[in-house]
Amino acid sequence: xxxxxxxxxxxxxxxxxxxxxxxxxxxxxxxxxxxxxxxxxxxxxxxxxxxxxxxxxxxxxxxxxxxxxxxxxxxxxxxxxxxxxxxxxxxxxxxxxxxxxxxxxxxxxxxxxxxxxxxxxxxxxxxxxxxxxxxxxxxxxxxxxxxxxxxxxxxxxxxxxxxxxxxxxxxxxxxxxxxxxxxxxxxxxxxxxxxxxxxxxxxxxxx
Length: 207
Fold this sequence. Notes:
The chain is of the alpha/beta class. It contains eight helices and seven strands; from the N terminus they run αβααβαβαβαββαβα. It has helices at residues 5-8, 32-35, 45-63, 87-92, 128-134, 147-160, 177-188, 197-204; strands at 23-28, 68-73, 113-117, 139-145, 164-168, 172-173, 193-195.
């Protein structure tokens, strides 16, 4: 996921974002429709890897007292939805469908801020940004799925709010390797630092 010569010669990716003083973690759409094999979106290998690694990251983040915001995507009915081009979203991302429940491995209702989002970004028309501002967050660590969709949208929104934005590659996942790599490469040369679980844990672990 290095910056290609055509972009590098034009200074893309030249300046690292780095961590600020206080991190917040966003966890995007690890609902069981993505994490259980009986569902059409379920159990893609990259997403399952990201789920396992995000659970490890969250254990450290919570022990450090860092704010965590977790979301799913669900709607009252198809009438409430944007014009999704994905049939499975239109048919199953409904409050009444069990697939929209959060995977318990990343969900601590006694600690996390839980939101239901209606658009790709976790920040769009939710209270996550206000929560992070109140908590003094200046760095957002983006985890979840899918890399090419809601993870990318949330990364760009984090950048647009002038937060240091860090995406640990092994804590986000997609259905295929190529779009996963392509989208991380692109946001990595424009908006965010692409890191990994070990590096992020080293930074946020309590002293």
